[in-house]
Design goal:
Beta-Lactamase; five-stranded antiparallel beta sheet; Alpha-Beta Plaits; alpha+beta; five-stranded mixed beta sheet; 44% helix
């Protein structure tokens, strides 16, 4: 495809991954815009790649990037081209594929195939990717605008839990504010104080409601609530979550799931769970990934803080920050309830 552009670019290949360099891909995008040829631009980011390098060594990380790049190239075939953006980020461009259903099909196939990538050469290292896409000329008519919108979609995918793809839609993603590295540090630090300040208000009921909404919105969780006995309290639903029929899980199911030392249970994807009772209870509610933690202080049990994901069939990769903030939420709340001598169902 587009031999007239790539014929003299065959030597411009990234040495590590054997896909096109950043300069070639940027030039190709400029070429398509100049010719007014519609296309979809996709930025792909390897999930948690830092932990691959730190935990398995840089040689393993380099090999993983090579295998992922080759997998992407094979999946796209003659539908598009792949280039290395830098580090663990790649760019894919698919000329003439711009209808939403067609774009969805391509990146669904890409996400599904990369998610199943396990390499015996890499000790069965399991890796996933997150992708953000924007279309020319539908979403933007210039390269800077396209990258900004694809970045917004990618950011939404990361906050949604990674291991997914997001196609930019103005009505859903226009108001996303991209964070700088400094912003990320500040927001990840301030969220702890925000949780503490809200939960220690005189009016604990409004404080819990505000915290549930703040944390659920910050992490883009489909459903966040407190589960106590046979009821759910303080439900938060993400605005674009279509499923609203959540209900309490059986207490014995939740109890059997939690780690006795941490009081935590979570699954990135419930298909990886071997406990049939837990899996069946989650599948019944359309939940693909879940997290719950005991709300407990001084041997007094007040229920579970529970987070569910149903909009991403691949589940959610729970990050350290997600887990730490939810754990802080449950611990602070448990202490507040204990010292105020209150139960959730009495608020």
């Amino acid at each position: 495809m587009f031999e007239e552009y790539f014929d003299d670019k065959l030597n411009n290949i990234d040495m590590l991954t054997k896909v096109y360099t950043r300069e070639v891909i940027f030039g190709f995008i400029d070429y398509l815009i100049t010719k007014n040829i519609p296309f979809d631009l996709c930025i792909l980011d390897v999930d948690n790649f830092k932990y691959v390098n730190d935990g398995h060594g840089h040689q393993t990380g380099d090999r993983a990037l090579y295998e992922i790049a080759q997998r992407m190239t094979a999946i796209l075939g003659d539908r598009g081209v792949v280039g290395r953006y830098g580090g663990d980020e790649f760019i894919m461009v698919t000329p003439y594929i711009v209808e939403y259903d067609d774009v969805w099909q391509v990146w669904h196939e890409m996400n599904d195939c990369t998610r199943k990538l396990r390499s015996h050469d890499l000790n069965d290292l399991h890796m996933t990717v997150t992708m953000g896409c924007a279309r020319f000329p539908l979403d933007s008519t210039n390269i800077d605008g396209l990258f900004e919108l694809a970045d917004k979609a990618l950011y939404r995918g990361k906050m949604k839990g990674r291991n997914c793809f997001i196609i930019y839609l103005k009505e859903k993603h226009a108001n996303i504010n991209l964070q700088t590295e400094r912003d990320k540090i500040v927001s990840s630090t301030s969220i702890y104080s925000m949780v503490y300040n809200k939960l220690t208000k005189d009016d604990i009921k409004s404080g819990i409601a505000e915290t549930i909404n703040y944390v659920g919105s910050f992490f883009m969780i489909d459903h966040l609530c407190i589960s106590f006995e046979c009821d759910l309290y303080f439900d938060y639903y993400h605005p674009i979550c279509k499923f609203r029929d959540f209900k309490a899980l059986p207490s014995d199911v939740m109890e059997m799931g939690v780690n006795p030392h941490t009081g935590i249970f979570y699954k990135n994807n419930i298909n990886d769970n071997r406990n049939k009772a837990i899996t069946d209870a989650l599948v019944e509610q359309g939940i693909s990934s879940t997290f719950w933690i005991e709300i407990k202080a001084h041997d007094h049990f007040y229920g579970y803080l529970r987070a569910d994901v149903c909009s991403n069939p691949s589940g959610r990769i729970w990050q350290n920050l997600d887990i730490d903030v939810l754990a802080s939420f449950s611990h602070i709340l448990a202490l507040e309830l204990y010292y105020r001598n209150k139960n959730i169902n009495e608020l």
